[in-house]
Amino acid sequence: MPVSLADVARAAGVSNATASRVLNNSDYPVASKTRLKVLEVAEELGYRPNLIARGLRTEQTFTIGLIVENVLSPFIPPITRGIHDYLSQHDYFSIIINSDWDPEVESAAIADLSQRHVDGIIFVESYTRSSDEVAKLIEKPHIFVHRLFNSLNRNSVVPDDLYGARLAVRHLACLGHRRIAFINGPEDWDAAVNRLAGYQEELAAWGIPFDLTLVGRGDWQVQSGFVVTQQLLTCRPRPTAIFAANDLMALGVIYAVQDAGLRVPEDIAVVGFDDRDFSGFVRPAITTVKMPCEEMGRISAEFLLRLISQEVDVIEPTLVKGELVVRQSCGALTGEWQFEPEQSSILRQQRLLHDDCREPLPDHEL
Description:
The protein is built from 13 helices and 12 strands. Helix 10 (222-232) packs across helix 11 (247-259). It has helices spanning 5-12, 16-23, 32-45, 51-58, 76-89, 103-115, 131-137, 161-174, 190-205, 222-232, 247-259, 293-308, 345-356, and strands spanning 63-68, 93-98, 120-124, 142-145, 156-159, 180-184, 215-217, 241-244, 269-274, 287-290, 318-320, 323-325. 42% of the residues lie in helices and 14% in strands. The chain is an alpha/beta fold. The strands form 2 sheets. A 6-stranded parallel sheet has the order 2-1-3-4-5-11, with helices on both faces. It has a 6-stranded mixed sheet with strand order 7-6-8-9-10-12, with helices on both faces. The protein folds into 3 domains: 5-49, lambda repressor-like DNA-binding domains (434 Repressor (Amino-terminal Domain), Orthogonal Bundle), CATH 1.10.260; 58-159 and 294-320, 3-Layer(aba) Sandwich (Rossmann fold); 161-291 and 323-356, Rossmann fold, CATH 3.40.50. The radius of gyration is 25 Å and the shape is elongated.
């Protein structure tokens, strides 16, 4: 039989009302010693709150709806994991609906979740409608996380792509590179726009001229990284490093460099973006900027609960910073790869430059 609130009250030697105030985190004053006793007993007995009863009192269901564009996206599972972990800590349950990039399916999902009286909705990788259009379809509190287009709107949690690009370029500049090429994604994507801006800003911060011939356009896929790299290798002088705006294109970069009879990182250093699962297993393993997926999920869930509790009326656009993951493809000493004695003098010079490079991101507090 499940443990009831009355069981906890009896075991703790308090009234049902006192136990309820403690277990429901009421503002009603309860002595610290009594509160601690009730919580200890509840944990010992394995007490779980009756959410149906609580919902009848508070007019809440303690259920959140998640509308995801495509459950097969590599970023959605870790984002939803961050959401789930935070919600479970606050006794919330979630329902996931896959909209499959279809506005009609998304509309039906919004209507279905509203009929189920969820307390709020999180849209994961939503792109089919603007924030204003969504607001017309739903009166429930809602949050967008990792929105792909028009991302800097209210109630949005997105990766700080500009900051991440600056991390990547700064790392290569620290290693002594000055001919740093960039392979970007499709121009209409927010990630592509912001990663290009970060690339340009960090070059300027290091006094490196922006050279349009060192910038190519891919489509996020391996083949495009391969083709653009073939073009970049015809530049004279050729780039000594290539920053690809995602790891799939970075993999294409590595294949193209090797296909040309060159070596990564000895001849050309490579850095990607996202930290996909395969990035640490290919050879050379890819240095990359980690997408802060679980953190974005956790923050979006936290913000949604704040909206539900009416602690705030709106959430300002929130940028979440990723971090650089150093591996083999850039030639840095802090990666997993250890330099061999017979490696080139250029790499040994880069090693010294990296050891001496301790500057913060110049000209910006990001």
